[in-house]
Amino acid sequence: MLNNDLLKTICELYKNKAEDIGESIGLLNMVLDELLNAVNLDVSKNLTNRNYDAASKSLELHKKISEEYEENSETIDFIENSIAEDLSTDFVVQTDEDEKKTIPDYSKYTVDQTIPHTLYENFEFKRPIGFKLYDKTVEATNWANVLQFTCELLYNINSQIFNSFISDKNMNGKKKSYFAVSEGNIRKPRKLHNTDIYIETNLSANSIKQIIIKMLKKYQIKLTDYIVFFRADYTEIGKQ
User: Fold this and answer.
1) Exposure pattern of 85-124 as b/e (b: 16+ CB <10 Å)?
2) What's the pTM?
3) CA–CA dist 75, 130 (Å, integer)
4) Exposed, middle or buried, 205 (CB in 10 Å: 0-12/13-18/19+)?
5) How confident is the model over 88-138, as pLDDT tens digits?
6) Which stretch of DSSP H or E encloses residue 1?
7) Separation CA 65–CA 72 (nearest Å)
8) What are the distances in angstroms from CA 80 to CA 3, 51, 205?
9) DSSP state of 192
């Protein structure tokens, strides 16, 4: 695991990449959490069958996984505390109006809007035109809209799963909420249509991508069933 001094430097110099690191560790913790549940079942099964040696091994494994989980959580917490809360000055803008103000001649950077892009790609400096889940195509011209409309689509598929995100520690940051029933702990909230749920939208493109990945995993939807379409690529500007 990266030490705190290195993480702090990354947070100071490459905030978006630090966010990506935190979100990736969060994804790892989701898998570890599922693994802990599986180990718990094995412990219970072995105890029921009086297979105490196997139960003891499972308990030891549970302890080691739990320690790794907690260490990861501390790393995520450190990253969140090290990153400045306000992302409004980042290159990653969230509204079309802001984009027009900050990107010179942005029409020069338009791309083929029919080319599909997967969640395995880097979304930094890209601008969306929409996304597709299964056979449903949705227009969304900024990343905040991509997140909002994806959430609303998933909510309509299964509201019970989506409602679980509010209390799921793996779906929220340790210091701030990404899903909530009030605006209190959300910096830039949006209320989902026909729900009482608010989501955080003060996020970079790659952070939004990671949240979508985590939601799809909860729904047991293959990542390849979700594709994004870009309307512009400002990588050339972003690297200047």
Assistant:
1) eebeeeebbbeeeebeeebeebeebeeeeeeebebeeebb
2) 0.73
3) 33
4) buried
5) 334 444 455 555 555 556 567 888 899 999 998 888 889 999 999 999 999
6) none
7) 11
8) 15, 43, 17
9) P
